[in-house]
Amino acid sequence: MTTPLAQQAPVPQVFPPTLREVLLRPRWLAMLALCLVVAGVFAWLGQWQLGRAIDTTPVDPGATEQVQPIDDIVKPGAYLNDPLVGQQASVSGSWIPGDFIVISSRFNDGAKGYWVTGQLRVAHTSTPTSLAVAVGWTADRAQADAAASALSDAAAADPTVVVDLTGRLISDEGPKLPDKSGDPLEQTRMSPAALLSRWHDTAELDVYRPFMTAAQPLGGLETIASPAPSQGSGVNWLNLFYAVEWAVFAGFAFYLWYRLGKDAWEREVEDIEDAAAELS
Whole-prediction pTM value? Predict the structure, then answer.
């Protein structure tokens, strides 16, 4: 009598998890918490950029043309805030002899020429403080040099003379390296930082970062063309773009979490299906 063949035991059926079940596992919940933190940082950065993009306190029309004392506008060593660039200011002080310097490549209503600048030692300050002032323009270099020399001689004759000036405050243009083939002392940018390196009597000196273009020219020069700044829209489109960009980054953090979780779920489902196929 023959023994019947043993019946093969049934293969237990394994059901793959759902995507929701995978995403609710501790590992992926921890990654979701990390994404929430990252997205929160991105959202804060976007809100900060949005606050900078929209000017909630715009300058009143014509406000820059109302002459104000310089210390009500900017302090020595401080940057000039954007709404105050071009503000008309008043200041009193004395010229420092020997510090009238010619700046080249300056345009006046489209004509190329030169500025003559001087170091004004501001009066009535607790510490020595100076302001760079562009006192006039000319198209002729010889006239610019002559005016600088004459103004320096006049200041040397009586350094205690106090002058009252009004003019427009403009942000530092930043220094620029001179042309290798040209005069190493020639300057083409109006930069108080660069002028400071050539000024005299600078020990313990505070300096205003912006410079002034004098409303009334000195030394027989022409008035510097310095029109009132145009009124902008109050919206900084570049900062607005950055705000939108940070919002996109915040959304991408959640998408990355979902995409990684879905990829892990798909791999797990494929492994289960392959294992079932081998046993069948």
Answer: 0.65
